[in-house]
Write a sequence for this structure.
């Protein structure tokens, strides 16, 4: 990797072997893009999927091998050069979008065009004791491997952060027989992504299954005993015993490289509806991108940054179209999922700005959906163990169809059956 | 070795040697078989790995669970009697499975 490749073989350099990076490379080849593609990552792993790290992989339900996106044969056949364990620290970029990337190991990688799929990193907590052995984060495969290796040796776990990662990991570790306390600084779980009714449902569910959830928890410090973690001290003086502390308090988009080459950044790399950054040629895709809200009917000028597989995949396809010169505008219904031990949460659409909610609850079947409306139109749903509701709402939003709120409250009614398409209305 | 044959909506077929224990979805995706999207990586959340199993092979598969059955109702192309989400079909010793992918998954 230390030999520079000649300029005429430069092609596209994708920095970040992420879901977005992999999808971009794959989509480009599917669209007939011919120039060389280099897919470069800073981890010493083959490109892999992250979502299972806090769930099936942690629980031992699947192996490391099932996280791998593609066989080496696939990469070879499609002439995608996969480079691992190289961290880009500097980029020289010309006005036409070409340039050279310099890695920490001294490699120089020339490119005709650049794609940044560099994702986000775990936000670090600035607290006394965070550097103690046994205090972990969970973002990448090495984090997951370390966590997995420690689990057999621990009994009491404290998870700091009641977002998706925190809850998924807490539910997994609880299922694995550990005593788990989940500390959330806010008044409810996943406050950033789901509505109040869903938060309340998740809280009751996880408490019932044995996770000790503490809301409005103010963590004062992490307590050590000798050279290892022993507990977490709250502001009220209470100390919760822990031989493992997992911190999941959100992520920070990795915008440093983009900023260094003068690309506009603001909570991510600012891109347009074709995934083009402010220089008009570099593309940025996935968790690192701040993009125009792709939801049909979203207010003009509304921008958003997603942390989701669905966005990484769909935005990468849009970026691929832009690169091959057949621009397609990014539009679609965002969706998300979170498996929390035996609970399956699926979210369709974005509930922000709703003015009405409808709860569909079927406790006997463990199903619980919350539908969100704005001005009478369905805009989103949080669905627990209710894939039919999820699918129906996702399809309705995509088609601009209506699901009458008054009828939707009856869980015996199938949403698909009461959906009114635009042609019918 | 177990073999999975994927036929697309136009009739083009591709046979892939599979590993016991992998899913039929994983086998397709890792080898770049088009027609199977599998956005959620096999966690039964997206219904984009929908396949029609050949009628003769269908009965030999273990029955599907309720969640898969429900997800199938939301597949992009309407389900048929032999529809499955292939992330839920495990490759077994000596398997010689034939599936057809729908026109679209999204």
């Amino acid at each position: 990797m230390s030999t520079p490749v000649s300029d005429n073989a430069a092609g596209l350099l994708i920095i970040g072997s992420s879901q977005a990076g992999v999808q971009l490379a794959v989509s480009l080849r599917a669209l007939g893009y011919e120039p060389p593609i280099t897919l470069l990552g800073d981890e010493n792993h083959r490109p892999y999927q992250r979502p299972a790290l806090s769930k099936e992989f942690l629980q031992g339900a699947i192996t490391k091998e099932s996280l791998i996106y593609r066989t080496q044969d696939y990469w070879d056949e499609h002439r995608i050069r996969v480079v691992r364990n190289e961290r880009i620290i500097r980029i020289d970029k010309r006005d036409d979008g070409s340039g050279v990337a310099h890695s920490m190991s001294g490699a120089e990688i020339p490119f005709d065009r650049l794609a940044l799929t560099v994702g986000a990193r775990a936000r670090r907590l600035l607290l006394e004791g965070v550097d103690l052995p046994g205090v972990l984060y969970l973002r990448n495969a090495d984090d997951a491997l370390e966590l997995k290796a420690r689990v057999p040796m621990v009994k009491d776990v404290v998870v700091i952060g009641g977002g998706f990662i925190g809850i998924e990991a807490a539910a997994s570790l609880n299922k694995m027989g550990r005593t788990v306390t989940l500390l959330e600084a806010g008044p409810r779980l996943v406050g950033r992504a789901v509505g109040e009714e869903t938060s309340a449902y998740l809280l009751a569910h996880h408490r019932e299954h044995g996770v000790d959830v503490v809301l409005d928890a103010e963590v004062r410090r992490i307590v050590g005993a000798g050279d290892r973690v022993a507990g977490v001290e709250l502001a009220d003086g209470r100390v919760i015993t822990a031989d493992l502390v997992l911190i999941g308090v959100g992520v920070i988009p990795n915008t440093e490289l983009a900023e260094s080459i003068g690309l506009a950044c603001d909570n991510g790399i600012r891109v347009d509806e074709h995934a083009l950054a402010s220089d008009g040629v570099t593309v940025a895709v996935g968790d690192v991108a701040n993009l125009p809200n792709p939801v049909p009917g979203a207010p003009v000028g509304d921008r958003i940054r997603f942390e989701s597989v669905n966005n990484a995949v769909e935005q990468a396809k849009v970026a691929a179209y832009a690169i091959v010169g057949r621009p397609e505008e990014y539009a679609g219904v965002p969706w998300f999922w979170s498996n929390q031990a035996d609970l399956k949460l699926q979210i369709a659409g974005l509930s922000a700005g709703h003015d009405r909610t409808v709860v569909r609850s079927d406790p006997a079947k463990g199903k619980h959906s919350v539908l969100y409306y704005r001005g009478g139109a369905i805009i989103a749903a949080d669905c627990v163990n209710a894939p039919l509701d999820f699918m129906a709402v996702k399809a309705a939003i995509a088609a601009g169809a209506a699901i009458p709120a008054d009828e939707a409250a009856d869980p015996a009614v199938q949403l698909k059956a009461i959906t009114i398409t635009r042609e019918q209305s | 070795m177990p073999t999975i044959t994927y036929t697309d909506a136009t009739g083009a077929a591709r046979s892939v040697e599979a590993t016991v224990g992998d899913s039929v979805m994983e086998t397709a995706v890792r080898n770049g078989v088009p027609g199977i999207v599998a956005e959620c990586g096999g966690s039964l959340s997206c219904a984009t790995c929908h396949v029609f199993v050949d009628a003769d092979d269908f009965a030999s598969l273990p029955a599907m669970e309720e969640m898969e059955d429900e997800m199938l109702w939301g597949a992009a192309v309407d389900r048929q009697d032999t529809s499955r989400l292939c992330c839920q079909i495990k490759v077994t010793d000596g398997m010689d499975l034939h599936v057809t992918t729908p026109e679209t998954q999204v």
Summary: Confidence is low (pLDDT under 50) at residues 1-8 of chain A. Residues 90 and 199 of chain A are 43 Å apart (CA to CA). The first strand of chain A starts at residue 12 and ends at 15.
